[in-house]
Amino acid sequence: MRPINGREELDLFSQLPYVLNEELADDLAAGRRRPEWMWVALRGDRLLARAAWWSRPGSDTPLILDVLDVDDTAANPDRMDIGARLVRTAMATALPDGSRPPEYSRFVPPDWREDTGTRQAVEDRMTVLERTGARLFVERLRLEWRPETPAPKPGKRLAFRPIQDAKELIALMTSAMHGTLDAHGRDDLTRMSAQNAAVKHYEGELARYTSPRDWWRIATLPHGEPVGFVLPAHNGYNPIIAYIAVLPPHRGNGYIDALLAEGTRILAEQGVPRIRASTDLGNVPMANAFRRAGYINFGREINMTWS
C-alpha cells in the first residue's frame, strides 16, 4: 500500500473505473491533486483498491475524499478489508496529525438502488468507510440544465440587481441560514453562529470562484426589499448554480422559481454546454423548483463523514 509515484502511474491508478478518471491528469497539472494524496493497494502488479483526495489549487491539505474503489471481481473476496486498510494507511500519512478526515463524496447513478450490481458496488464502498469510522451524512441530487431546454422566464413580480459587495452577500447568507433544509448548513449551525457559517461558506468556496461577480443577483420586491439571491458561477469544471436562497420572511410565495430562472438565464446567455446544480435529496421544495425549471436529475452524490 503506497502513494503513486507521479503522473507516470496514472494508468495504473485508473485501472479501476470511475467517472472522475478522465479528470485526474488535469487535476494533477492544476494542483488540485498530488501524487502523495493518491494511494493504491497492489498485489504484485494487480490493483486491488485505490483512494484519492482532492483540494483547491495551492492548498497543502486534502479537502475531500472523492475517489475510493475496490476490485469488485469475485476473485477478490477480501476487497472490503483491503479497502479499509488502504484508507486507514493513507489517512495516517496524507492527513495532518489529529485532524478530522475530510468528507467523502461519491457520484452514483440516479437509480443506483434499482440495479443490483450498482447497489452492491456503492454499498461495498460505504462499508469500507464505515469500518474506518465514517457514517452516511447526506445523499444529494445532481442536476443539469441543457441548452435544448428553453430557459425559464424570471417573471415580473421581482426585480434583480447585482450584489454590491461581500458584506451585503454575507448578511443575506446569514439570514438564509435560519430554517435551512441543507444538511451541511444545519450541521454548521450545531457548531457555530449563522453569521460564522455564512462567512465560512463564502470564504471557503464562493470567494474562490474566478467567474464574474457581476453574474450574482439579488431579487427584490418593487420597493427594493430583498427577497433572496442567486449566485451563478463556474467552478473550474462546469457552469453552476453555486448558491440560491429565499430569505425566511418570503418563503412559500413561489419566489424560488424566479430566482432560479434568473440564474439559469445569466449562464445560458454565456453559451454554456450545460449548467450543473445540486441539492439534498430531502430538500424537496428545491428539487421541485429545479424540475420545474427544466433541470434533469442525472445522478446522485453520497456524502459520508467522520466524527
Written description of the protein model:
The longest helix is centred in the first third of the chain and has 16 residues, at 79-94. The protein has nine helices and twelve strands. The strands form two sheets. The protein has an eight-stranded mixed sheet with strand order 1-2-3-4-5-12-6-11. Strands 7-8-9-10 form a four-stranded antiparallel sheet, with helices on both faces. It has two domains: 2-132, 3-Layer(aba) Sandwich (Aminopeptidase), CATH 3.40.630; 159-301, Aminopeptidase (3-Layer(aba) Sandwich). It is α+β, with helices and mostly antiparallel strands. It has helices at residues 10-13, 24-30, 79-94, 116-130, 166-177, 183-189, 194-204, 255-268, 284-292; strands at residues 2-3, 38-43, 46-54, 64-70, 103-108, 134-145, 159-162, 217-220, 226-234, 239-246, 275-280, 296-306. The mean pLDDT is 94. The chain starts with a strand and ends with a strand.
